[in-house]
Design goal:
Radius of gyration of chain B: 21 Å
CATH class of the largest domain in chain A: Alpha Beta
Number of domains of chain A: 3
Oligomer: heterodimer
CATH superfamily of the largest domain in chain A: Periplasmic binding protein-like II
Strand order of the largest sheet of chain B: 1-32-33-34-35
Low-confidence stretches of chain A: 1-23, 257-282
Radius of gyration of chain A: 23 Å
Structural class of chain A: alpha/beta
CATH architecture of the largest domain in chain A: 3-Layer(aba) Sandwich
Strand content of chain A: 15-25%
Shape of chain A: globular
CATH topology of the largest domain in chain A: D-Maltodextrin-Binding Protein, domain 2
Order of helices and strands of chain A: EEEHEHEEEEHEHEHEEHHEHHHHH
């Protein structure tokens, strides 16, 4: 699953959306807080995967519960959440067996995603040939750029970010944009315009996503497989309601495609080894945050420099102000700083590197607690 | 041959005077990176020599203030030594060159988090000096000028937006009234340029892109608009020929790594050589115009960055008994190039390390003779390519001795597997997508200090090393060569024979080139110590062993004869 272009940045990291209701075990779903329109913590609607998760919970007869966790760490994110029993299912993992060895099972397919050609409204496209002589905007170092480079006669207009490529289309500096499709609803909202969206079939250009389940939970995987098979129409309707749609579809076989590259590998039944879940850690957000506070104040000694309850002696050390100081990237700054330390600080003191001293789980707990402390001014 | 050498020695003496570019300190000090404009890394000083070097002993040490990779070579102007530390630089210091006592020290303010934009280490290779001012390139993409007497900051200019992954790690070149710098970031899709500023005021005087835009000669060497993010950044030191008024800059690999975006997916790439990346360019420093360019690795697909320095000497390579103005380049791609530094044409080229991506270099076409099986590409994996991407030689400086007419090269012996990588660019984040497995080169060693005869294009002697990424080299009039290795052993070596005459363990890996100078009647040799913490990260298993083998450090050591 590709990391989506960063469009709107949501910062909340751990947030529980528990639904009251029946006494049975909640159906815990791990979702990325910032991959609109797939899942997002901010806004009135929380994204396609969120709504699919609600329906899966309903089908299972269990209350729906979300564990928000960013996926930009890739496999590591899966390891820290799903495989640490923070949730029962992670929506949006690639529909590929063997991504995490035997530890991760997948149910699906959930959604098909990929690169699309975006054209002015009313312009149709029957094949690549029609792009010859046209200016096509792409993002530097993307698979779209790689694919575009294999066809002669198309004029590439390259930008660092997919958002810039779409802006060039809006500004008339390109005749089409070849971008990751999740960016498209964003530009349509931004520009108030509607575009023609053509799906592009080809190796490395399309993927299917899945519901990831830990191997100990094979019965759940099998059940989800069944439910998802009957939900395709419903999921497609949800995706459309978020602005994802194709007005056409073309082939772009820029590589001799193998089924695997197309993400269409028929899933071989994987050998099932039943083992206990890796880390039966508590998944209750309140408890995690409280543990974070305790670690910060009493155990790891963070309070020596940053003050009790993170109320620092000066602004640079006041960790309630991290979101003000580092804005949307504040959690990245948190991870970078606690892991690697910081030699040069405004206070003149040295921030130690904690990566070998504190465990990942401890650092996550502290971040969960700090998240709730952030002030806005 | 003997006769040639005699003639040649005379010409070298002249050359040395020219290359120093004036300044009374030149004969006893270390006025600029490389010791002179020609980047010889050589000093005439001979008080420490083959006969007495066994008695070389500790003079003083100075902490550099942090334990990142220390790549700085100090300057010595009069009796003051100027040095920078890693991480910004964190410190610029002026020391008493005889005692190591601090005269002034400035701690630079870097934006928090700037480290993440440095692909290959938060390093600094040292300051530059001219007319009472010290100039320092910075990780945050800025260039600062300080009063050499007091450390007072005179001006700071923003050269490039560091948030696009472009940092400055090397000292600028100072020619006449201009201070000229480039920056790094070929990995992130920058389009390289060099900029000249008025050395007094910091006012920009000219700016030249290494990758030509539409309408400029060479733009046709790029497919589509790939020139826009084409790389070719200038992040290492430049040399300068005052007689011809030409400055020589090395340029980095092209971007993106996927070569088919920039041209054909084959060794038969025709016009698509991607100028001027993986190249050396000669620039008129008065106006920034590119006079010529030479590409060691046209249409690069291996990350054979071309930044390595061009070392300028006048030697008879044509065999007509007259010295020829040439430039010597030990390229990352494994070839030792002897270039006519007036025209930019290669006069000879031979591999100085195990090299197999090309079978040779065709002097008629001025292009490598590629082995098509060794070119990775779209859906095409190439295996056992030598050298690997850190190159036959990396940034560590080689030295030239006019006493032996040899070049001393800190060489690497590594190979790799490679294929087109599935990569996506996120602003400021270094993401390569795939590993390029590093393999040991043939012969059971990973590095070698090679004494190379550039006329015969042949190795004269070598000291094999257990690890790659060993220290830069200094040659002296005392018949010596000084160089450290990754295991922290600092050595004085007989320049003629390769015999190790003296050695000291300095506590961590040594990468920096040493310097030498004379103050108060004594000759000193200084070297910065502190192993790289990032480069081994590119080297897989070998890198992990390297990290285990040595702790990090940050020290400057000075030695003299007591």
């Amino acid at each position: 699953m590709r990391r989506l272009p960063s469009l709107v940045i949501a910062a909340s990291l751990v947030l529980l959306a528990a639904r009251a209701g029946n006494a049975s075990e909640p159906f815990r779903v791990c979702l990325d807080p910032d991959t609109p329109p797939l899942s997002m913590v901010e806004g009135e609607r929380h994204g396609i995967y969120y709504e699919v998760g609600e329906r899966l919970a309903a089908a299972l007869g269990r209350p729906f519960q979300v564990y928000w966790w960013p996926t930009d760490l890739g496999k590591r994110a899966i390891r820290l959440t799903l495989l640490a029993d923070r949730c029962d299912v992670m929506l949006g993992v690639p529909y590929v067996e063997g991504l995490m060895g035997p530890r991760l099972l997948v149910a699906g397919p959930l959604l098909e995603l990929g690169y699309v050609l975006v054209l002015p409204e009313g312009v149709s496209l029957a094949g690549i040939e029609e792009l010859r002589g046209k200016r096509v905007a792409v993002a530097f170092n993307s698979e779209a750029q790689n694919a575009l480079a294999t066809v002669d006669g198309i004029v590439p207009v390259t930008f660092r970010q997919p958002e810039e490529a779409l802006r060039a289309l809006v500004a008339g500096e390109a005749d089409a944009a070849f971008v990751w499709e999740a960016s498209v609803p964003w530009i349509e909202r931004q520009s108030g315009r509607r575009f023609t969206v053509v799906a592009v079939d080809g190796p490395r250009l399309r993927w299917q996503s899945a519901a990831g389940v830990a191997r100990a939970n094979k019965p759940l995987r099998d059940r989800l497989d069944e439910i998802l098979r009957s939900m395709h129409t419903e999921i497609a309707a949800i995706a459309r309601s978020y602005g994802l749609r194709y007005d056409g579809r073309i082939d772009w076989n820029w590589l001799p495609a193998t089924a695997e590259e197309r993400g269409e590998l028929p899933l071989a039944p994987s050998p099932i080894v039943r083992v206990a879940a890796e880390a039966p850690a508590g998944s209750d957000a309140q408890a995690i945050a409280e543990r974070g506070r305790e670690l910060f104040n009493s155990v790891l000694g963070c309070a020596h420099c940053h003050g009790p309850d993170a109320v620092g002696p000066d602004k640079p050390r006041d960790l309630r102000r991290m979101k003000i100081r580092y804005r949307s990237g504040w959690t990245d700054t948190y991870w970078e700083t606690v892991r690697e330390g910081r030699l040069q600080t405004q206070s003149g003191l040295v921030m130690p590197a904690w990566k070998d001293t504190a465990s990942q789980e401890e650092l996550e707990a502290i971040l969960a607690w700090l998240t709730g402390l952030q002030v806005s001014r | 041959m003997r006769l040639t050498h005699t003639v040649f020695l005379a010409s070298c003496a002249t050359m040395a005077l020219l290359a120093m570019g004036g300044g009374a300190a030149a004969d006893t000090g270390w006025p600029m990176y490389g010791g002179n404009y020609a980047k010889w890394h050589y000093s005439e000083l001979a008080k420490i020599n083959r006969d007495n070097v066994k008695k070389l002993s500790f003079a003083w040490a100075r902490s550099l203030g942090n334990a990142f990779s220390q790549e700085s070579t100090p300057l010595v102007i009069g009796d003051t030594l100027y040095v920078t530390s890693a991480n910004g630089p964190q410190y610029v210091m002026a020391l008493d060159a005889a005692t190591g006592a601090i005269r002034w020290k400035v701690e630079l303010e870097m934006p928090a988090g700037v480290q993440q934009y440095a692909c290959c280490g938060v390093v600094n290779r040292g300051p530059a000096y001219s007319d009472g001012m010290i100039y320092v390139g910075r990780l945050d993409g800025a260039l600062s000028a300080f009063d050499a007497k007091t450390g007072e900051e005179k001006w700071t200019v923003e050269v490039v937006d560091y948030k696009q992954g472009s940092v400055i790690t090397s000292p600028p070149l100072i020619v006449k009234d201009l201070v000229i710098t480039g920056f790094g970031g070929g990995e992130y899709g920058a389009r390289g340029y060099i900029v000249a500023y008025d050395k007094k005021t910091g006012k920009e005087r000219w700016k030249t892109y290494t990758v030509p835009g539409p309408g400029e000669p060479g733009n046709e060497s790029w497919k589509g608009d790939s020139w826009k993010h084409g790389g070719g950044t200038v992040w290492l030191v430049a040399s300068y020929d005052p007689e011809r008024n030409l400055a020589y800059f090395g340029t980095s690999n092209p971007a993106p790594w996927a070569a088919h975006v920039r041209g054909p997916n084959t060794s038969d790439f025709g016009q698509y050589s991607n100028k001027w990346t993986a190249a050396t360019i000669a620039v008129n420093p008065d106006d920034g115009k590119i006079v010529w360019g030479f590409q060691g690795t046209p249409h690069d697909a291996w990350d054979y960055d071309g930044v390595n320095e061009l070392l300028l000497v006048d030697i008879d390579v044509t065999g007509d008994g007259k010295p020829d103005p040439v430039g010597l380049k030990a390229d990352r791609n494994g070839f030792f190039f002897v270039l006519d530094r007036v025209t930019g044409k290669a006069l000879s080229a031979q591999p100085f390390v195990p090299t197999n991506w090309a079978k040779g270099f065709d002097l008629a076409t001025q292009r490598p003779i590629e082995d098509p099986a060794k070119r990775p590409g779209l859906k095409k994996k190439a295996v056992d390519i030598c050298p690997n991407l850190i190159g036959g030689k990396n940034w560590m400086p080689m030295a030239w001795s006019p006493q032996t007419n040899l070049v001393y090269i800190p060489a690497n012996n590594l190979c790799m597997d490679m294929e087109d990588s599935e990569v996506e660019y996120k602003k400021g984040s270094f993401y390569l997508g795939k590993d390029f497995p590093t393999k040991p080169g043939p012969g059971g060693y990973l590095g070698e200090l090679v004494a190379w005869d550039p006329v015969k294009q042949a190795k004269v002697w070598g000291i094999k090393e257990k690890w790659p990424f060993n220290g830069g080299v200094l040659a002296t009039g005392g018949g010596l060569v000084f160089a450290g290795n990754y295991e922290g052993e600092f050595r004085a070596i007989d320049a003629k024979t390769g015999e190790i005459l003296w050695k000291k363990q300095l506590g961590s890996g040594i990468h920096a080139g040493p310097a030498t100078y004379e103050v108060g009647g004594k000759q000193y040799v200084v070297v910065a110590v502190g192993r790289s913490e990032t480069i081994p990260g590119f080297l897989g298993d070998i890198g992990r062993k390297m990290i285990d083998a040595q702790p990090t450090a940050g020290m400057l050591f000075a030695f003299t004869l007591e």
